Amino acid sequence: MKNTANHNDIKTDYKYGFITDIDTDVIPKGLNEDVVGMISEKKHEPAFMREWRLKAYRHWLTMKEPHWGNFYYAPIDYQAISYYSAPKRKMDSPKNIDEIDKELLETFDRLGIPLTEQKRLTGVAVDAVFDSVSVGTTHKEILAKEGIIFCSMSEAIQNHPDLIKKYLGSVVSYTDNFFASLNSAVFSDGSFCFIPKGVKCPIELSTYFRINASETGQFERTLIVAEEDSFVNYLEGCTAPIRDSNQLHAAVVELVALDNAEIKYSTVQNWYAGDKDGKGGIYNFVTKRGKCSGNNSKISWTQVEAGAAITWKYPSVILQGDNSTGRFYSVALTNNRMQADTGTKMIHIGKNTKSTIISKGISTDYSNNSYRGMVMILPSANGARNFSQCDSMLVGNNCSANTFPNIDVRNNTAILEHEASTSKISADQIFYLKSRGLDSEGSVSLIINGFCKEVFKELPLEFSVEAVRLLELKLEGSVG
Amino acid sequence: MISTGLKPQKFIEQLRIKRPHSKDDLPPWLTNLHEEGVKRFSDIGFPDPKNEEWKFTDIAPITEKSFHFPDEKTIAELRSFNEYVDRNEPTIVFINGFFSARYSSLNGLEQGLTITNLAQAVKDQPKIIQSLLFRHDLKQENSFSALNSAFFKDGAFIQISDNAVCNRLIHIIHIVSQQNDDTVIFPRNLIILGRSAQAEILESYVSFSKIRYFTNAVSDVFVNEGAKLHYYKAQGESLNAFHLAGMRIAQEANSEVNTFTFSAGAQISRNDLSVTLDGEGAKAVLNGLYAVSGNQLVDNHTAIDHKPPRSLSTQLYKGILDGNSRAVFNGKILVRREAQQTNSYQLNKNILLSPSCQIHTKPQLEIFADDVRCTHGATIGQLNDDEIFYLQTRGIRKDFATRMLLCGFIDDVTGKIPNVSARTKIDELLTKIFPALKCKI
Amino acid sequence: MLEIKNLYAGINGVSILKGVDLTVNPGEVHAIMGPNGSGKSTLAKVIAGHPDYKVEQGTMEYEVNLKKLDLAAMEPEIRAREGIFLAFQYPVEIPGVNNSVFLRAAFNEICRHQGAEEMDPIEFDQYLRQKMKLLEMDEKFIDRPVNVDFSGGEKKRNEILQMAILAPRLALLDETDSGLDVDSMKIVANGVNKLKSKNNAIVLITHYQRLLNYIVPDFVHVLSDGKIIKSGGKELAIKVETQGYDWLI
Lengths: 480, 441, 249
What we know:
The complex is a heterotrimer of chains A (480), B (441) and C (249). Chain A is built from ten helices and 23 strands. With 480 residues, chain A is α/β, with parallel strands linked by helices. Strand 22 of chain A pairs antiparallel with strand 19 of chain B, so a sheet runs across the interface.
């Protein structure tokens, strides 16, 4: 099957909207036990994985699609989606980067993620995922020297079945929620990352997700395990071509941090968001959860959500180990007809656990932006602390901003503080900046950058530069 | 909303059979209204725990019981009652749901002030009462407002005509006095302030006994242009009682309403306070205090609907929890697209005194206009050890230091009650039910 | 009046005071100086009875009206009622608790304990206003919540006001001069000097010699790493000011 490029006749600012012309291996649309089996077979998976997938599928059949989010979409026909799409390869699994198809390398080059040895980014190891499969991982040698495993999920299932058995589904079980169950049944690939005891990962690890094929769903699964006293900084990026039908992206990310381990997970999400009338775009229904299972462990989620037609995503932390720390830093920007319902959950179980939530929502045009959060302090969590701050900014008068922070406290030694505000960019502020010589877009981006500063400073430098540029691009023309 | 397994039909039938008076006394429009209430309640039933609005408030202890109407209208605990009321203030008294002319003080009212019982008002000015009672869409009512619409019989009717000013505190008191367990009352109060009218009203729900009963009250308040109202609600029910109350306030342009919702009694209590700011420049200040212990549950739901431009709302709710008690605070602020230049503030602060109490707090902002300033916040904590130590180093005993700090904690809500008489009465109920807050030195 | 012998104390299992010996007699003014982290504030908090600090070894004997009391065994409020007063380095803000209500409550508790007559609100109000004049404090502070929205200088003055009201036998002033401009410091020092008598004693904890120009100490002690390493007269303070602590350590 060949995809033909048709993006030239659509006017847009979305520079990642191109389509790669490549032969793909797509299985027929529809979902049943045979399809689940077929995916498992294509990945040459051991029997336990096949069983796990089938259990997930059977459980999924008993579940209903959730509709409590503050957004609307037409019903999804789960039988009209193809659950597997992979670029056809000249050989089954490329041994090194140079064996990857030229078209794919060019695609990632255009996305700013060169994979070949000559051009690859220094300081970041990248796992590039194209449609349903991982096409290659850079810097494998450096990582291997430290005993770090960083590979595609398919490879991990084949090469490290014990780790997979132990940790896959240990944070997000296959019964967790509708989209997580679906993912468990049909996930095609994703990244696996294992940092052994005492190792501070010397370079940043990164996965870049690219949806290319049409009418396929993308279901990746990422698992990061940080053993005792280890550290890893992990980055995730995502783009998709412009298509006028909606595409489903239902990923699951699980993080496990053992004693004294720290995982930092950053995302700049820039899926295609649909056109200005809300046609097309990705449905981004993602379950991300980390478990601080060890004492003194730390997990932080930093996200810049600037794409996708609908975002339904609550990166969460289960604070099980004593003195463990969870952090959530988020900027969610919606424009045109985008709908975002995002936030976090912090579940405090261990003693003296701490969590911080900083959320900044910006809505423009006809978009709808909601923060939804939950901070739960269980009776065992003596001395737990939480600080939350959720600010919204509205640009224009047709958008909306909502805040739904749930706070549930069952321990009287806990201390919680929650602050939220909603404001607009005032005409006085713009005037002040203009009178100092800035133009109106420059003024707005200055204000927005100030508004999001606390989140941007959590991102690795190159990511934060990209995030700022992305916001500026999206806001262009929204403020008169 | 889907009806639950809690069988609203059965609940209604039991009450219908025992309905104390025949329908013939009532004008047809009122009978209609009751029928609409029955219909609405049968349609939606009791809220079940899956209902987001009732997630943390389990009403099974209420729905599992079979309630009957009380038949006596005497006060057994007359001494306590006399200590609580001030006969020099305009006072309207309902005993076990029945209007009591004997204990009310309704002589020598200010010019432009009408205070009567609703059943009488239905006879005296049926047109006005009819229009006010139908102001809310019966098809939109929640379960317990609908239940009240189905069964209410009496309550206070207070009317303050245009430009009239009442300087004395008006006291509505609903007392439940010694009866058998499991009686139910359905008070319906109706308050209307004319243009530029001013009044201060205290609505008390008290019982000086330990009996179990169910109060399902609704108060509708209409505040016309430029009027000013202070409305205090004091809930000091028996600790075995259930209290589910709705208050709906509609405000016209440039009106100002200050409410103070106080809850200390009842095993389960819930206040649904909704304010609609209908006219430009309307201002609503909602304050509240809850202090619970033992196995009590207190639930405050507020909803403010900012419709026109340039309206203001502020909310400050404070709570103190002890024992195994639970508290719920849910504050919803809706700012509609036309409501430009809205200012809205909300703060909920809680102190948990024991390891086994629980608090669920959920502010909710839904904003559709861009030129607004909204903030909300919530804090939960315990008493600050450094503050206690500081007071100890000045010679103050630890338990007394604790009490001083608790009183200090609530001071910025109780201190905002401008009316001394209302403040004294609320303080009386508070210290009776929650002695840890006895602040007088 | 106060006799501290071989005092070891710490917080969360970490020892901070490591063998302090200090004797204070009625009528004396002592200054305790020392570099940051030497344990000065800890010593003040341990004497006042802060619950976070644990006495590990040694004794603190407090003698009042010929009875000898073991401080370590007493609750903080009992120590206060026996006449020990700590002016905090960082006075705590107590929202909602009115300054005058608080002061009268404290005053009457101490009176009751010492067998003195309590004051009614009117008497107390006069007494309070008179003391406020002494410290040149604005009367608006009477009805404000304790220390809430007070500036740094106002908080410190409020501490000395409390000292004036409660008339302690042993006053510990922890960095009372920090954050004060020269004028405020003179007012505070003047207030302290007026409260000084042959029956009470004052312990000043300070980083700088500056305050000692205004409240002249009889004894100066240098505390370092939890121990008094040097004691002397006023001249020791001047030497520390000019030469720092290095020559001592």
